[in-house]
Design a protein that fits this description.
Blueprint lengths: L3 E8 L3 H13 L5 E4 L16 E2 L10 H20 L3 E2 L3 E5 L5 H13 L4 E5 H7 L7 E5 L3 E3 L1 H14 L3 E3 L4 E7 L2 E6 L2 E10 L5 H7 L6 E13 L10 E4 L11 E4 L5 E9 L13 H8 L2 H9 L1 H12 L1 H9 L10 E14 L9 E4 L3 E6 L4 H18 L2
Parallel strand pairs: 1-2, 1-12, 2-9, 5-14, 12-19
Antiparallel strand pairs: 3-8, 4-8, 5-7, 6-7, 10-11, 11-12, 13-16, 13-17, 14-15, 15-16, 18-19
Helix pairs in contact: 1-5, 1-11, 2-11, 9-10
Amino acid sequence: MRARGYDWLVVGGGIVGLATALALQERFPEARLALLEKEPGLAGHQTGHNSGVLHSGLYYRPGSLKARLCTEGNSRMLEFCREEEIPHSVCGKLVVATKPDEIPRLEELARRGLANGVPVRRLAAAEAREFEPGIRCLEALHVASTGVVDFQVVAEAMGRRLVARRADIHLQTRVLGIRLDGEGVQVSTTQGDFRAARMLNCAGLFSDRLARAAGARLEARIVPFRGEYHELIHERRHLVRGLVYPVPDPEFPFLGVHFTRMLDGSVHVGPNAVLALKREGYRRADFNLRDTLETLLYPGFWRLAARHAAEGLREMARSAFKPLFVASARRMLPALGSGDLVRAGAGVRAQALTAYGTLVDDFLVVHQDRAMHVCNAPSPAATASLSIGRWLAEEAASRQ
């Protein structure tokens, strides 16, 4: 069968791939574009298991790509939601310091937020309780531009826009091989062959494998971390009005257990972060031999584990023993009891890790003559997706 021909191929039907395809359509309105997704529907993995938080840009190093794309992306995402009439709420959040040694870190967060153009207000404990009467803290930051949205609904709206603008979306189309030559890219899939002048790989948890299949040199590997959530029982939802976060540990790459009131009124608590033994392993029992061996045989994983051994063991303990998870959450919400929480869903974060055991903190894009590979798009990728897509489209245009 003859390969189907396009000007652009985007691999991956998560929110970053969809936003990138939209940006390419805007940049090249006459181009023929197709998006390939291995699942029966869009946004079935990282996007569909996202926390739903519309981030403000508070945490990121001023001047970094994450900081710029997040603050821009927050505004663009809100505009997109208004245009598509997607339910969302800009409810703000509190970041609370519960111990004296967290106050200098809270001050640093405030400095970063202001440098990134994020509206931040420091609050004394009594002022913080006006927002969240049930919390215990010494001081807090109020971040007004944080919100919540269902990113899977957003992704589906992006897909409808793509089709309305005459892009082709091929579902249940798993990539089997990639070959680059002087004229373009040949992609073999379960639904036949595709050919394009250029390709963008936005395959999330499998982006590194596809990059290597295309012959790209990549100095990092995806290591999957599962974030496990609990949920407040209905009778105890009143304990949390909005979003409440701890001050993050600067030595550990995750934000810690926090509270998120969703659009439907439910309150999610979490996540803790543990190694996933399957790249799409949303349950604790999920296991894939290849995925596990790739992680356990990778020197970078053991160097990371040695550096963060104590915190890693605490995360594993919180995953295995509910009372420890509850104790972490009670630091901020002392009225919380073990019976107030039930297990909820989980997500898997595709985290790029170097062989030296260093987590890739910013977005990582690997370039080839005819292809670009997005090999690290950590949080706030969903919030920033429309800005990421525009940035990638401009990068691609500049390399034509």
